[in-house]
Amino acid sequence: MSAGTAKLNVTVAEVKPINELVTRFKFVRTGGGDLPTFSGGAHTVVEMEDGGQTRLNPYSLMSDPADRGAYMVSVRRDDEGRGGSLFMHNNVKEGMEMVISNPVNLFSLDLRAKKHLMLAGGIGITPFIAQMHQLSHTNGLFDLHYSVRTASLGSYAEELQAQYPNRVHVYHDDQDERINLEELLDTQPLGTHIYVCGPKGMIDWVHKTAEELGWPREAVHSEEFLAPASGQPFEVKLAQSNKVIQVGEHQSLLEALEANDVDAPYLCRGGACGQCETTVIECDGKLVHYDHWLTDEQREAGKLIMPCVSRFEGKTLVLDQ
Amino acid sequence: MTIQFNDETFRDDFTFRNSPEAIKRFPFPFHEDSYMYSVNLEPHVALKRPGSPFEFAFDVDEHYVSEMADRAKVLADDPLRCQSLPHMTLAGWDLVEYIMEAKARDYPDLFELHKDGDRWRWINKPLGIDDTFTFLDESTLPYGPMEYITRQTQGDFALLDQRDDNLWMDAGMVTTQADWSLDFDIGMNFFEWHAPVPKAHEMGIFVRALKFLLNLQQGAPVRRLNWTMTVNPLLDTSPENYHKWGEMKSKLTMDNIGEKQHLRVELQTLFRLPRSNAICFPIRCYLCSFNDLVSVPKWGRRLHRVIRDLPEELAEYKGFIANRPLMIEWLSQYDDGAPTSDGIFPDE
Ligand code: FES
Predict the structure, then answer these.
(1) Taking phi first (over 0 means left), then psi (-120 to 50 degrees means alpha), and beta for anything else, what does residue B14 get?
(2) If you write DSSP's letter for every residue of A36-48 in order, what string do you get?
(3) Beta carbons of B100 and B93 less than 8 angstroms apart
(4) Which residue pairs from B47-54 have beta carbons closer than 8 angstroms and sit at least 24 positions apart in sequence?
(5) Which CATH class is domain A7-105?
């Protein structure tokens, strides 16, 4: 059974530009009725029919998990990227019917925590909005430190400050405001858990600083979805389905499998969950790993690849698919 | 589809009985004439077979009221059979919501759920319960949320918290379990509760199973059937009580085996709880005496063949190796060697 099969039919109820780069989309169940509840930090995979190509992009749910009437996601336009965000910005209109996955949470709160310390960078704010909703229903203790480029690009910063006074702290890059991480971590009560979502540099910085200050690994949580990287086109042989397929420059290996009717498993499509792990039978060339899943030893061994983000350069690649 | 509930016991005088309808819907676990151990997880989708135990998310049958009375007795003797670590309260509410919505939808003549915002009214007619409470407010229920709803739902329940890329058995209601102990396993992770640590070559299976469960998706529950043998229709075969039930195994004869020996089937399901991201693992037990099983000719033939050909180590592992020769001798009377049809259901 391939994962990612539990789907929801939804209708776009609202498309709302938040600022120059970010637009918010609201989905309701097509034909009415409740959507499933979810837990803060969950994402959904949105299916897009983009000119003969199916794109599936994960977006964090930012609405109140207890609100079963609608889901909301925010999409940051990436002019450089492979087009998923551009499709959302340019083609998705109110009233359109779409298919999204059931919520999946790879960034859930550790409910044992005495306090939740949230660190957001840019569009990484969205899962925290849902988590703050969830915690405020159960009187959970949290603080959010949110780093934005400029006030006008700081999506939701003002609303959040108004909604959770004293708990939301905003830092503006253009005014040289920076999170003083060491001091912040040093002053947290015992039993605090740290959550970080944002650009890769920020995530690495938080993990490294926390480790240096002696925080246990289990108390630091992060989420980073990688957009699949573009790269040289390549050819793959599939041993099980007995096919030879081409992976295009702006296509991921997973997308190429799907375009060739191979039922490949996935959940996050961002190199984080491990669901798409595939065995490499033969490799004459170089596997280019972009995922967060495989260990260094596994990469060295060269027997596994994560098709949602990773690629290949060389002569022959044979996969157990 | 109103159900006639039995008044019966699962201890002392053992008045437990299956009606002819209950026998016909028994989840017979063997789809062919032999059995091999496998993890055999399949999607827990509703089976369009009216009356089957796979028809609904939570099956309610004629034993419901008496099973709940038995659970109350077990808990009165040993309250530690129900435990929930403090961070699992939200998962308990998840379960309340999931079960109440499912039962009210699937058995509208037996259960009703009326919501007015967070004020919920729950009517459980078979157990004579009519409670109004505030969702997510523990002080408005007589027990914690998991205990409250699992005192009204057949089957044992384990709630598994997901964190640090592992699963932790942090809450459960375990009163009908074949041979494991919640009090021993509470707070353990996936590898610890499968201890003694699996051998290296088995480790791969455990890692794959864990990975599968960590990625279990909301809206896509899975199920499997497991089985064992129990002498007398005893629900509570826990290690804590081995001294009480262990000796019953030595009292079987050709004359009483048909009545006393029961095939015990566990319908195990796994589903993601949406609000807490925990996993719920219900283990529902069905019992059927050998006498009742052989009343279905296909099952009589097949059970004989399965038990006869089962590898030694499996009979040993399932705890009936000593009684196996007796079982085979008795069952052979019901196997004329005729072929059997595929699948678990009786021939029409
Ligand atoms: S789909 Fe999650 S790692 Fe590839």
Answers:
(1) left
(2) PP--TTEEEEEEE
(3) no
(4) B49/B345, B51/B21, B51/B24, B51/B25, B52/B25, B52/B27, B52/B345, B53/B25, B53/B26, B53/B27, B53/B267, B53/B284, B53/B286, B54/B27, B54/B223, B54/B267
(5) mainly beta
What pLDDT band is residue A4 in, cutting at 50, 70 and 90?
very low
Contact present, A274 and B215 (Cβ < 8 Å): yes
Mean pLDDT of A189-215: 95
B321/B318 Cα distance (integer angstroms): 8
Q: What spacing in Å lies between the alpha carbon of A148 and ligand 1's midpoint?
A: 28
Answer whether B218 sits within 8 Å of A104, measured CB to CB: yes
Closest CA to B43 of B270, B272, B222: B222
pTM score, whole prediction:
0.85
Instruction: Retrieve residue B135's tokens.
Output: 């969702």
Q: What CA–CA distance (Å, rounded) separates B172 from B184?
A: 12
Cα of B131 to nearest chain A Cα, Å: 22
Alpha-carbon A217 to chain mean position:
21
Which tokens is A107 given?
Answer: 């960034």
DSSP states of A79-120: SSSSSHHHHHHHH--TT-EEEEEPPEESS---TT-SEEEEEE
pLDDT at B307: 96
Q: How far apart are alpha carbons B93 and B90 in whole angstroms?
A: 5
Domain A234-319: state its class: alpha beta
Alpha-carbon gap, residue B130 to B296, rounded angstroms: 40
What is the distance between the alpha carbons of residues A292 and A284, in angstroms, rounded to a whole number?
23
Asked if A4 has any chain B CB less than 8 Å from its own CB, the reply is yes
Q: Using the predicted structure, report yes or no on whether residue B201 has a pLDDT greater than 80.
A: no
Q: Give per-residue pLDDT as tens, A205-257.
A: 999 999 999 999 999 999 877 777 788 999 999 999 999 999 998 889 999 99
pLDDT in tens, B126-183: 999 999 999 999 999 999 999 999 999 999 999 999 998 899 999 999 998 756 677 7
Q: Which of A232-241, B179-188, B223-232 has the lowest mean pLDDT?
A: B179-188
Reported ipTM:
0.79
* Coil vs helix vs strand at B247: helix
In angstroms, the CA B81 to CA B79 distance is: 5
Alpha-carbon gap, residue A157 to A148, rounded angstroms: 9
Query: Chain B partners of A35 at a C-beta cutoff of 8 Å?
Result: none
B275 inside 8 A of chain A by CB: yes
Length of chain B: 348
What is the C-alpha separation between A155 and A128, in angstroms, rounded?
A: 12
CATH number of A115-223: 3.40.50.80
Read out DSSP for B174-198? -SS-SS--HHHHTT-BHHHHT-S--
In angstroms, rounded to a whole number, what is the distance separating the alpha carbons of residues B42 and B54? Answer: 12
Cα B113 from Cα A18, distance rounded (Å): 39
Domain boundaries, chain A: 7-105, 115-223, 234-319
Q: Find the residues whose C-beta lies inside 6 A of ligand 1.
A: A 266-269, 271-276, 291, 293, 306, 308
Inform me whether the pLDDT recorded for A45 exceeds 60.
yes
Name the band, by pLDDT with cuts 50, 70 and 90, for residue B39: low
CB B163 to CB A274 under 8 A?
Answer: no
Distance CA B335, CA B231 (A): 22
- Mean predicted lDDT score pLDDT of chain A: 92
CA of B52 to the centre of ligand 1 (A): 36
Which amino acid appears at position B198 of this protein? P
